[in-house]
Amino acid sequence: MITIDAGPSGTLRVAPSILAADFGSLANAVREIDAETDWLHVDVMDGHFVPNVSIGPPVVKSLRQYSDRFFDCHLMMSEPGRYLEAFRTAGADGCTVHVEVGSTATLIDEAHSMGLRVGLAANPDTPFSLVAPFLGDIDLLLLMTVFPGFGGQSFISDVMGKVSEARREVDVNDLALDIEVDGGIDVVTAPIAVEAGANVLVAGSAIFNRSDPLEAAHELRVAARSGRG
Ligand code: DX5
Ligand code: ZN
After folding, report:
1. Which distant-in-sequence residues (6+ apart) come within 8 Å of 154 by Cβ?
2. Is residue 76 a contact partner of residue 44, using CB atoms and an 8 Å limit?
3. CB neighbour list of residue 171: distance below 8 Å, 6 or more residues apart
4. Beta bridge pairs of residue 42
5. Total-model pTM
């Protein structure tokens, strides 16, 4: 099973979240924004870790035929370890688990052993100290800028301190680690997040709620670049 290359860590990336797309025509939505998609952010919700249910491996498998982008699967699940193999087989390239569910070291090892790129996510109220011990073992740190479960929420700017703290750790220790923000990212908040130290921007409603999602994704990329000073 090939893994699509995520690209060099630290590169500025736009990762559209399909949660905000039209699920009745998901392949078209994904193809329409392909030219502005670095990673495709796939939000998986189990109705237990978060009070919502979205999609699972069957949808990843179907979408895999229509996109050769890096599939960045955000597993908002209480027991992600039970499904890593299924997501890998379906075509996931990276899987991100939440530190709040525990067994973090085991999950990181299991995901890496399957050839997955591994992300660790932290909710807005989870302290940086909880993820700090794992920075050397992961490929992606996802710092949620909303509480997970739904798209279209407002950006929680208090998380920017955590983003900057993570960026300092990555730079001081020269870690090959991407810092991703997710939730309420748009042309206003994207440069704020990039200036704080994020390099991967997940956006759902800011892209798919527009009549021209491709244009919206391009505008987001331009806005994000302005945050790099
Ligand atoms: C929320 C998800 C996010 C969300 C982003 O639980 O993890 O990826 O879909 O949607 P927007 O960009 O609309 O906040
Ligand atoms: Zn997400």
Report:
1. 146, 184
2. yes
3. none
4. 73
5. 0.97
Q: How far is the CA of 101 from the centre of ligand 1 (A)?
A: 19
Does an H or E element contain 64, and which?
Answer: helix 57-64
- Rounded to the nearest angstrom, the gap between the alpha carbon of residue 89 and the centroid of all alpha carbons in its chain is 19
Handedness of CA 118, 221, 225, 182 (dihedral sign): negative
How far apart CA 148 and CA 183 sit, in angstroms, is 8
CB 185 within 8 A of CB 224: no
**Residue 80 beta carbon below 6 angstroms from any ligand 1 atom:** no
Q: Tens of pLDDT along 73-108?
A: 999 999 999 999 999 999 999 999 999 999 999 999
What's the one-letter identity of residue 140? L
Instruction: Report whether residue 204 contacts ligand 1, using a CB cutoff of 6 Å.
Output: yes
Adjacent-strand bridge partners of 141: 120, 179
Q: Is 103 left (phi over 0), alpha (psi -120 to 50) or beta?
A: left
pLDDT at 1: 56
Number of neighbouring beta carbons within 10 Å of residue 135: 16
Angstrom distance (rounded) from CA 204 to CA 152: 8
Q: What is the pLDDT of residue 2?
A: 63
Q: Which ligand is nearest to the CA of 220?
A: 1
CA dihedral 129, 5, 23, 212 (to 10 degrees): 100
189: three-class secondary structure by DSSP: helix
Among all residues, which ones are annotated catalytic?
Answer: 43, 182
